Amino acid sequence: MKTLLSILTLCVLFTVGCATNAPSSGVGASGEKYFMGNYEATFDTSLFSMDKAIRAACTRAKLIPKERRNYAKACEYLYLDVDGTRCTLSTRELKQGGTRISIRIGATGDRITAQALLIAIDEELRSLGAN
């Protein structure tokens, strides 16, 4: 019984993940966090500028665009890597005037790659003059 309980405890710990506040990877990004495979950050920019920056950064990273859905205050993107790895990005316009972005690489999430993509998006935003 104790072994079953310890195995269940370990399974719960591995599936929940951990929330961390990583040091800021970009100048315009704030409130960055990585939780359960999603890397999230908030930018002080419009949804239109964020859309242009995401498409430019993903083109620069040579990701293959598969799907883009635009809603009134949100956008969802699906890109594929050359290896077929899914890259899912979602943005949502906040009431305070900023935009929140969520990045998930692969099925379980890859923190290093998501952070590199976030840095590329931040560089594109700075080159657009949006921040």
Helix and strand run: HEEHEEEEH
According to DSSP, the number of beta strands is: 6
Looking at CATH, which topology would you report? Answer: Double Stranded RNA Binding Domain
Specify the helix fraction band: 25-40%
Overall mean pLDDT = 82
Describe the protein.
This protein has 131 residues and is an alpha+beta fold. It has a single domain, classed as Double Stranded RNA Binding Domain (2-Layer Sandwich), CATH 3.30.160.110. The chain contains three helices and six strands. A six-stranded antiparallel beta sheet has the order 1-2-6-5-4-3, with helices on one face. β3 and β4 (74-80) form a beta hairpin. α2 packs across α3 (111-128). The chain is globular and about 40 Å long. The N and C termini lie far apart (57 Å). Residues 16-24 have low confidence and may be disordered.
Give a summary of the structure in a few sentences.
By secondary structure, this protein is α+β, with helices and mostly antiparallel strands. It is 36% helix and 32% strand.
